[in-house]
Amino acid sequence: MSEKLRVGILGATGMVGQRFISLLENHPWFEVVTVAASPRSAGKTYEEAVGGRWKMDTPMPEGVKNLVVMNVNEVEKVAATVDFVFSAVDMSKEEIKKIEEEYAKTETPVVSNNSAHRWTPDVPMVVPEINPEHFDVIESQKKRLGTTRGFIAVKPNCSIQSYAPVLTAWKEFEPYEVVATTYQAISGAGKTFKDWPEMVGNIIPYIGGEEEKSEKEPLRIWGKVEDGVIKPATEPVITCQCIRVPVLNGHTAAVFVKFRRNPTKEQLIKALVEFKGLPQELELPSAPKQFIQYLEEDNRPQVTEDVNFEHGMGVSVGRLREDTVYDWKFVGLSHNTVRGAAGGAVLCAETLKAKGYIQAK
């Protein structure tokens, strides 16, 4: 086990923390050695701290049950036990910004699932298949923080994963205007139906802050590193509505696109299924072999059939057809707590390790 990097999970008892724990079981490169959470959980075993709140559909891994939960606020103490951390802490945005920087300043890389640092100019926000070159900005961030190996990297919001990769695959056709409506699962709010019975048979047409993230974050991903910061792209312009629906896992998007160079359906499908990035080239442990699949059936993608495509790390697309107002429209589906949260962060960490940014202390 000693050759594996030692990993800590900040916010380990919450839903995304639990997803990290389950995804990292038997990981070939990483081993969870430290779990940290709020002071009220500290001192208990992980199994005691989570109690009856284990929300994954697979059992709690044996390897973590008896780990004693550390106090996430005891930064130096936690950092001393690990090579890097995943952050899924549940705090205010300002508190998250502060604590993630504190960990980075102990020379501990932080790979975060949180939104707090997504717009910090020198913090890379990465989907590894799309913009791994944004990790180059880490060198500027280290200068600001005064670190040699400590830094923060983040992954983007779960809601954009069902359409931003698709638009990236179609870049050569110059999409310039996009309308997207996302139908988002309740696990995106850290809930199950047991926690949120009023969602059964219900739709809520509002998710706080989500529409702004869904419109702006893709532009940052498509931006360029200039003068040590990331300058967002200006196109395509995206307008979005985000709706909470009675589904446990899986965000679906209905999307309309205008192109400057209008492609054929065959060209669009070919671009999707052939699209790959650095994780596929490097054959990283969590990388989907097929990043985007296209489904020909009229009634796909469906959450029950397709959300676990490539172990939840792939994107499913269907219903691609010409539109009467826009050029083309499609439906996309991604797993919001795997690709959209913990899995996306694990893939970021694997990419960072492959590029030499994360090493044993």
Assign the structural class, choosing from mainly alpha, mainly beta, alpha/beta, alpha+beta, or little secondary structure: alpha/beta
- Total number of beta strands: 14
So, the CATH homologous superfamily of the largest domain? Dihydrodipicolinate Reductase, domain 2
Mean pLDDT across all amino acids? 97
Q: Which CATH-level-2 architecture of the largest domain?
A: 2-Layer Sandwich
Fold-level CATH name of the largest domain: Dihydrodipicolinate Reductase, domain 2
The major sheet is characterized as:
6 strands, parallel
Q: Could you state the order of secondary-structure elements as H and E?
A: EHEHHEHEHEHEHEHEEEEHHEHEEH
Coarse morphology: globular
Strand content: 15-25%
Unreliable segments of 5+ consecutive residues: none
Gyration radius, rounded: 20 Å
Report helical residue fraction: 25-40%
Strand order of the largest sheet: 3-2-1-4-5-6
- Could you tell me how far the N terminus lies from the C terminus, measured between alpha carbons in angstroms? 16 Å
Number of domains: 2
Can you identify the CATH class of the largest domain?
Answer: Alpha Beta
| Quaternary organisation of the protein chains | single chain
